[in-house]
């Protein structure tokens, strides 16, 4: 039996003096390159910067996630989303918030937005009509998380992403054409639902541009 459910999502704003910036995008979009450039930009201004990424791939949960992403261990994809949530919670409490409290600039390669886009790709019965409800159900795991002050999505085509990833050693579980297409669609859903939260940038240009 189906029930019609509607609810509002109130995102928690950064209450600290530091600046929280996140770069999002599908695999191969160039997030790491731009994160380093941003770090150098703020350091030239005399700001103290913490450069980090999610999933952390460190510690008890992060190392397990890394093994799964590398296809060295297998669990149901839905279960993987709960590991992502746990890893992000630890990262937020131990890295992001302490740095923001000290007034530092936190630049992160991904945050909870990724969980929504990638979580939608993990749905076995992929139905475009039910994507919004599925996205909100994933977001519900992060309702107490701090939303970044600025989120930049580096937009590239799946074909360009695959071309860039072709030179990478060791393909991860999400780095397949059909997966990247679903993830890209998940991000487009986020743009529509949260247009004031995510700025879309052309990631196909050279890094300097």
Characterise the protein shown here.
The protein has 209 residues and is α/β, with parallel strands linked by helices. A five-stranded parallel β-sheet has the order 2-3-1-4-5, sandwiched between helices. Helices cover 45% and strands 13% of the residues. The mean pLDDT is 90. The longest helix has 25 residues, at 77-101.
Element string (H = helix, E = strand): EHEHHEHHEHHE
Largest sheet: 5 strands, parallel
Strand order of the largest sheet: 2-3-1-4-5
Uncertain spans, ≥5 residues at pLDDT below 50? none
Which range does the strand content fall in? 5-15%
- Rg (CA only): 17 Å
Q: Helix count, per DSSP?
A: 7
Shape: globular
- Structural class, by secondary structure, is alpha/beta
List keywords for this structure.
single chain, 209 residues, 13% strand, alpha/beta
Q: Can you describe this structure in just a few lines?
A:
The chain is an alpha/beta fold and 209 residues long. The chain has helices at 31-44, 59-69, 77-101, 112-121, 131-139, 158-165, 177-193, and strands spanning 19-24, 49-53, 105-109, 150-155, 198-202. Strands 2-3-1-4-5 form a five-stranded parallel β-sheet, with helices on both faces.
């Amino acid at each position: 039996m189906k029930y019609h459910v509607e609810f509002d999502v109130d995102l928690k704003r950064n209450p600290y003096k530091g600046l929280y910036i996140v770069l999002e995008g599908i695999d191969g979009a160039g997030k790491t390159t731009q994160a380093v450039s941003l770090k150098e930009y703020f350091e030239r201004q005399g700001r103290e910067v913490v450069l980090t990424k999610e999933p952390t791939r460190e510690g008890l949960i992060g190392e397990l996630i890394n093994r799964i992403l590398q296809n060295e261990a297998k669990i149901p994809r839905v279960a993987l989303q709960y590991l992502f949530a746990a890893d992000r919670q630890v990262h937020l409490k131990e890295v992001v918030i302490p740095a923001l409290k000290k007034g530092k600039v936190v630049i992160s390669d991904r945050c909870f937005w990724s969980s929504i886009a990638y979580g939608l790709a993990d749905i076995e019965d992929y139905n475009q009509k039910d994507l919004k409800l599925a996205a909100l159900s994933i977001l519900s795991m992060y309702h107490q998380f701090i939303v970044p002050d600025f989120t930049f999505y580096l937009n590239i085509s799946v074909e360009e992403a695959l071309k860039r990833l072709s030179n990478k050693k060791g393909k991860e579980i999400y780095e397949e054409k059909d997966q990247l297409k679903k993830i890209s669609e998940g991000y487009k859903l986020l743009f529509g639902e949260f247009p004031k939260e995510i700025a879309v940038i052309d990631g196909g240009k050279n890094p300097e541009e």
